[in-house]
Known about the structure:
single chain, binds NADP nicotinamide-adenine-dinucleotide phosphate, 15% strand
Amino acid sequence: MEQLKNKIVFITGASAGIGKACAEVFAKAGAKLILCARRVERLEKLTAELKEKFGTESYFFKLDVSNRAEVEEKINALPGEWKAIDILINNAGLGKGLNKLYEDNIDNWEKMINTNVKGLLYVTRSVVPGMVERKRGHVINIGSIAGHEAYGGGSVYCATKHSVTAITRSLRIDLLGTGVRVSTVDPGMVETEFSIVRFDGDEKRAKDVYKGLEPLTGRDVAEAVLFCATRPPHANINEMVIMPSAQANAFIAHRES
Ligand SMILES: NC(=O)c1ccc[n+]([C@@H]2O[C@H](COP(=O)([O-])OP(=O)(O)OC[C@H]3O[C@@H](n4cnc5c(N)ncnc54)[C@H](OP(=O)(O)O)[C@@H]3O)[C@@H](O)[C@H]2O)c1
């Protein structure tokens, strides 16, 4: 992992799940980390742990990626030694509800669109110009199999993740010849806080999502992200789809009773 030594890796949504696991695997690989999320106390704890375990240098701050002014202000205000971001991992995101579109709470839609689409765009717009200037960089988006398939009750979540697929593909074209790479890692079922958030804290309902099968862990996905980030400069992973072995697609999974 020599190529990641002292590289600056910016991870959004690093306070839990896949983002936190990315912080751990990139710290182990010798990278320096910029971490953000809304629950800043968790970031404080994580950076202390990574410092202790791997000697990792981190810079963390509270950020709601859906707040455009806050994104611009806080990324512009990064201290000089943290400005030259090498890898951006656009991970912050959420699902809210699993309801029929015509019965759904519209506030759920606003949250998902504002975070998964607009938040990803705001952060990307603030970070990528510096990468283009330096003629190097890598944007790795965390999409989903919901960006490839659509399932009932998931119309808006699927729409946001289809947007991530489209943004990834267009941005790759826009950045051609600049030295900046663009990838997306698209997981199936990962057991994180995702379902707890989706079902408003209903832990039983969240647990049932993974009943009878072994889901992916945040670590599985983080290792896929690490693989994308460690290809030689002439090679780019465009899209990586990763699912539990017990899951065939967004609809079909094998569950042991
Ligand atoms: N779990 C799955 O099955 C699965 C499958 C496919 C794709 N994904 C995608 O993977 C990504 C990470 O999800 P996860 O499974 O790791 O869920 P998670 O455990 O709930 O973690 C989500 C992270 O995103 C952050 N976040 C949410 N809204 C934010 C906002 N407005 N501003 C800043 N940070 C925000 C959360 O931090 P704070 O709450 O502290 O802000 C948290 O750190 C998401 O994009 C999700 O759509 C998940």
